[in-house]
UniProtKB/TrEMBL annotation:
Residues 1-21 form the signal peptide. Keywords: Repeat, Signal, TPR repeat. One of its GO terms (biological process) is cell division. It comes from Halanaerobium hydrogeniformans (Halanaerobium sp. (strain sapolanicus)). Gene3D superfamilies: Tetratricopeptide repeat domain. This is Tetratricopeptide TPR_1 repeat-containing protein. The keyword Repeat applies. The keyword Lipid biosynthesis does not apply. InterPro entries: Sel1-like, TPR-like_helical_dom_sf, TPR_2, TPR_rpt.
């Protein structure tokens, strides 16, 4: 009997000792598991790291500081794997513990910005929500401010975006900051201020290729054609095979009535890319100005070969036939233009004009009325219609 009693006591002692050892082992295992999870995180084994961090959170008694660390890395793991909803969930759990992290809110905001194009589209409204919260939590680096300004801009809050870009420029700007602020001024119609900022971006050194087109286009819109040409020539030095620079140079030379230089630039454009339909169109314009109608028609034909939907080429072709008093051919070209874009009032006006010259007054009247329906302020159409109505 005593022997049986001692055996039972021995079993109880062994079980109790095992439980104590297991409890002690659990504490050690939690620390080891965290180290292993952190190692996997640093090695970008994010799926494995998440499993281990989740196990720590759900299966172990953790003190507040330990739980904060686990939730922080769970959030970062979700961010790395582009799982936005999971990241938000973990951040909310952190906030329930009384912790708020500007860095984590920034990471979530960046996911919504879709800067790496990991999603089909961005959600700029949600991005702004988390980036504003980041700002409220005290983050103020220029890198963060660029994200915040971008979110404001995409939410049509241009004034807020402009203020932030100006803050960055006043601190420690890069060329891109000038470009972004320049685009905002351009969108608001302040072209001179936009030009000033683009010039400052150029002075910073390394810039995006787009700056040459953007700045050149601004000069062109302002009627400063020589400056536009100079900027496009800088673009050619940076990228000699970029066809749009040559085409834009040609447009500005045409504005200056310098047909020879315009022609040289367009031929160079076609040498680089024989499919440049706009270059052929402009060559046709030059040939037509020189009264070389056959050559002009060849160029317009080439333009339409490479872009059969190019309305400007049909219009130019039709105007040439009007000039030659070949009204049936003009009607044919203008009909093509109308077919390609029925809502373009100018095509309908010229079709009406061709009908008028061909003495097809009912057709002319109908087309001019359609023109005025699309644009009731188009005076040339109204004047021609009035003339027809008088007769």
């Amino acid at each position: 009997m005593k022997k049986k009693f001692f055996l039972i006591v021995l079993i109880i002692i062994l079980v109790f000792s095992s439980n104590l050892a297991a409890q002690e082992g659990a504490k050690t295992t939690a620390e080891d598991l965290f180290s292993q999870a952190l190692k996997n995180y640093n090695q970008q084994n994010f799926n494995q790291a998440e499993q281990e961090f989740s196990l720590l959170l759900n299966e172990y008694e953790l003190d507040e500081g330990f739980k904060f660390s686990v939730l922080y890395y769970l959030t970062m793991t979700a961010v790395k794997e582009n799982r936005t909803l999971s990241a938000i969930n973990y951040v909310e759990k952190l906030e329930e513990l009384g912790y708020q992290s500007g860095t984590l809110n920034w990471q979530i905001g960046e996911l919504f910005l879709n800067k790496n194009r990991q999603f089909d589209s961005a959600d700029f409204e949600m991005a702004l929500k988390y980036l504003k919260k980041t700002s409220e939590l005290g983050l103020s680096s220029n890198t963060f401010k660029r994200d915040l300004a971008y979110a404001y801009r995409e939410n049509n809050k241009r004034e807020n975006a402009a203020d932030i870009y100006q803050e960055i420029i006043d601190d420690n700007p890069i060329a891109e900051d000038y470009l972004n602020l320049a685009k905002l001024y351009e969108e608001n119609g302040d072209l001179n201020k936009a030009v000033e900022l683009y010039e400052q971006a150029l002075a910073k050194g390394t810039v995006q290729q787009s700056i040459y087109l953007n700045l050149g286009n601004l000069y062109q819109r302002l009627g400063n054609y020589n400056s536009a040409i100079s900027i496009y020539e800088l673009g050619i030095k940076a990228n000699p095979n970029f066809v749009p620079y040559y085409v834009k140079i040609a447009e500005n030379y045409l504005a200056l009535d310098n047909f020879s230089n315009a022609e040289d630039a367009l031929i160079k454009a076609i040498d680089i890319n024989r499919n440049s339909y706009h270059a052929y169109y402009l060559l046709g314009v030059i040939a037509q100005e020189r009264k070389d109608y056959e050559q002009a028609l060849n160029y317009y034909s080439n333009s339409l070969t490479y872009n059969p939907d190019y309305v400007n080429a049909y219009l130019a072709e039709g105007k040439l036939y009007l000039e030659k008093e070949e009204y049936n051919n003009a009607i044919s070209s203008f009909l093509q233009a109308v077919e390609k874009n029925p809502e373009f009032f100018e095509s309908r006006y010229y079709l009406g004009l061709a009908y008028y010259h061909a003495n097809m007054m009912e057709a002319a009247r109908a087309e001019l009325r359609r023109t005025l329906h699309l644009n009731d302020r188009f005076q040339k159409a109204r004047d021609l219609l009035d003339e027809i109505e008088k007769n």
